What we know:
By secondary structure, the protein is an alpha/beta fold. 32% of the residues lie in helices and 19% in strands. The strands form 3 sheets. Strands 13-12-11-10-9-8-7-14 form an 8-stranded parallel sheet. A 4-stranded antiparallel sheet has the order 2-3-1-4. A hairpin with a 4-residue loop joins strand 2 (26-32) and strand 3. The longest helix is centred in the middle third of the chain and has 14 residues, at 106-119.
Amino acid sequence: MLIVMKPGTPEEEIQKIVSFIKSKGFDAHISVGEINTVIGAVGGKTIDRRDIELMDSVQEVIKITSSYKLSSRAFQKEDTVIKIKEELVGANKLTIIAGPCAVESFDQLESVAKNLSECGVKFLRGGAFKPRTSPYSFQGLGEEGLKYLRQVADKYNMSVVSEVMDISQIPMLLKYVDVFQVGARNMQNFILLRELGYINRPVLLKRGLSATVEELLMSAEYIMSGGNRDIILCERGIRTFETATRNTLDISAIPVIKKLSHLPIIVDPSHGTGLRDKVAPMSRAAVAAGADGITVEVHSCPEEALCDGAQSLYPGQFEKLYDELRRIAPVLGRSL
């Protein structure tokens, strides 16, 4: 349930409510809005709403019927804005995350990052651990790849986005990564999600191959229930009967999630289509539909890429796309 406090309620009164909720076996999650403070009571067994409603500092008690609570609009009406270094995700500025699918070498990463930085990109993506369908495919450079990411990102004043696959990798990634990415295959790895709830680092959570929007929000709930509220949702295409593209990019998920949740959502048109010539039009469509940004794969020589070359943009193609988004953004009240 949600406990909406009266405007101007002092902190000591809020803490009284929190203590009462916890005494009943619930976890208390506080959201401070522009007018009201809202306390989310999650877990526990039963509690008489009247015991709370009759407290002087309480404005109203709302029962949440959805399975996800902390990620819902009912818990927090204002959009979540995440600050990563000097950049904001979820504000009126579009977030662009770009880089190769996998870190292959220092020179490869340096070449791509240089081009991205010249465009104005502030988030460098790259996989150091690659969950591949085949065990014989390139699996990534591991910690060596993370070191390359950190070195190159620092050189160009960028933040690092890279995927975590297992709990055991978290301590290592904390040394190098600014945003932890959870891939589609791990969206329902609940043990991993719980652990990411305890770290002080934003999480980019990708939608699973066949996951519903509600399942995506429930996965975000696992992370948020541990205390980490900095979640960036990512629509990256779902598996359907269609074979013309690698996946079916669900553009409709953007406005659906915007209505249900306060969390920012970005789109991955590279995995969503799997085809280089489809990345730009789907990026434009995602921004037009209200996405808070995009994450795209860029490689200096896609035909020689060790991973997902067919969906990676050439630097020149990315520059053109970036310029297009720069012109589209103001129409929607956004900027790059």
